[in-house]
Amino acid sequence: MALELRPNCEMCDVDLPPDATEARICTYECTFCAACVDDVLRNVCPNCGGGLAPRPIRPRTAWRPGLSLEHQPASVERRSLNHDLDDIAAHTERLARIEPARR
What we know:
With 103 residues, the chain is of the alpha+beta class. Helix content is 18%, strand content 8%. The two termini are 26 Å apart.
């Protein structure tokens, strides 16, 4: 199963096209821009509490049959957080000093 490649940062709503090098995801594919991850979230997913890593870029060219952005297109469904900023700040503060592998 291919990643969804969500089209936007769930925090600030900036566009994150499939080839965005500044896209970050958690293990559940929650998607954020690098600026929000670094400046606000401190590498804590505000949903699951896990760490965030650079999102892979799906090839535009099918170097192997059927495996490309053309065959598995990126999602167009925009997402946003269900938590308010105070809740996110408290969640981030509680977890930011714990390495993602130990959360």
